[in-house]
Amino acid sequence: MKITISKENYLKAIAEAQSEGETVIAATLARWLNVSAPAVTMAIKRLKRDLLIGVDKEGRISLTADGREIANRVLNRHHLIERMLTEIFGMEWYKVHDEAEQLEHAVSGEFERKLQEKLGNGEACPHGNRVGYDTPEAKRQRGWRPLDEFEPEAAATVVSVFERDRKLLEYLDGLGIRPGAELQVLARNYDDTITLAIAGRSIPLGKSAAGKIWALGR
Questions:
Q1: Which of 19, 25, 79, 174 has a CB 3.0–4.6 Å from the CB of 131, allowing a cystine?
Q2: Is 187 helix (H, G, I), strand (E, B) or coil?
Q3: The model's pTM
Q4: Helix (H) or strand (E) holding 198
């Protein structure tokens, strides 16, 4: 069985969507990968043939043990490359996801091992996300909550940011919102924004953006 870049991308997308708490169906993959419905249909057929995924009667897609192993391998490479780009080359945190998306398929097993030896087993990437299957439920068990759930006067530390939206990352970086940033929720506003105090400034943030930021109360 040949593992192509396309197969790796589909398996990784399934794992990532599940980690975000989504039920994965064909339409989910079309949205995550920005591909057509016919392309997804053909890919699902190939992945089922190769026993890398299962599809139930409702069309819900899950990874088999072999599919999960491949997805985890790609996710680990992605994680290591993001850390390499920031920790060794000093690239801005909001740029490294897109670079890692391109490089993750070109990394050999030997280079991956070298990166692991060099960087060690750090738990989080530059966006604060852990490698592997980290669900919203697991995050809540650690005491994390989406920023839009915090009440006024609550103080929090940003721990993780949704990394698959470059425009969002650049916007948050401009506001000073990144993993490790300390802030306070000043108000929840009628227009579905929240007002934050961060680094001596008062800034508004929309609910949809706030919902993609995980924070830990202080």
A1: 79
A2: strand
A3: 0.89
A4: strand 193-198
Determine contact, residues 196/212, Cβ cutoff 8 Å. Answer: no
pLDDT tens sequence for the chain (218 residues) = 678 999 999 999 999 999 888 999 999 999 999 999 999 999 999 999 999 999 999 999 999 999 999 999 999 999 999 999 999 999 999 999 999 999 998 888 899 999 999 998 777 899 999 887 788 999 999 999 999 999 999 999 999 999 999 999 999 999 999 999 999 999 999 898 999 999 999 999 999 999 999 999 98
Q: What structural domains and CATH numbers belong to the chain?
A: 1-132 (1.10.10.10), 136-217 (2.30.30.90)
Is residue 193 within 8 Å of 205, Cβ to Cβ?
yes
Measure Cα distances from 59 to 5, 24, 55, 91, 184 in Å. 24, 8, 6, 40, 42
E-strand stretches of 81-176: 144-146, 155-161
68 and 132 Cβ atoms separated by less than 8 Å: no
Picking from 140, 124, 135, the residue whose alpha carbon sits closest to that of residue 180 is 124
Residue 155, beta-bridge partner list: 184
Q: Where are the beta strands (DSSP E) in 31-146?
A: 53-55, 61-63, 144-146
